[in-house]
Amino acid sequence: MQNPHGVGCPWHSITETWGAPNVKWCEETLCQWISEPANTWSNLAFIFAAILLWKTKTKKPSVRTRLNYFSFAIAFCGIGSFIYHASNNRLTQFLDFLGMFAV
User: Fold this and answer.
1) Of 36, 71, 87, 96, which alpha carbon lies 20 to 30 A from 63's?
2) How much is the average pLDDT of 58-77?
């Protein structure tokens, strides 16, 4: 895949160094710091869900442990995907895939 960022865009040189992502998502890549705004900002829902799960009260230690792991995995997924969709290059795409794998 070719570099989705034109010359002069904030992420152009990083994408030239690390490579373009191997998947083209539905949203058009824009020439700005947040190159896929809808995909980027929608990841805040994962981060808010992780906070809510982490703050969930339970008296069972085994459930608490699983909720802590799952809240970490969801937060990692949201943060990794946020960074990837903001920058849209192969290096940060790896973070997005790691986060999805963790969940």
Assistant:
1) 96
2) 91
Local confidence band at 94 (pLDDT 50, 70, 90 cut-offs): very high
CA distance linking residue 43 with residue 50, whole number of Å: 11
At 16-55, the pLDDT tens digits run: 999 988 887 778 889 999 999 999 999 999 999 999 999 9
Query: By the 8 A CB rule, do 102 and 79 touch?
Result: no
- Return all residues near 47 (Cβ < 8 A) that are at least 6 apart: 74, 75, 78, 79, 82
Cβ 19 vs Cβ 36: under 8 Å: no
97 token code pair: 């895939």
Q: What mean pLDDT do residues 49-67 have?
A: 89
| Separation CA 45–CA 25 (nearest Å) | 19
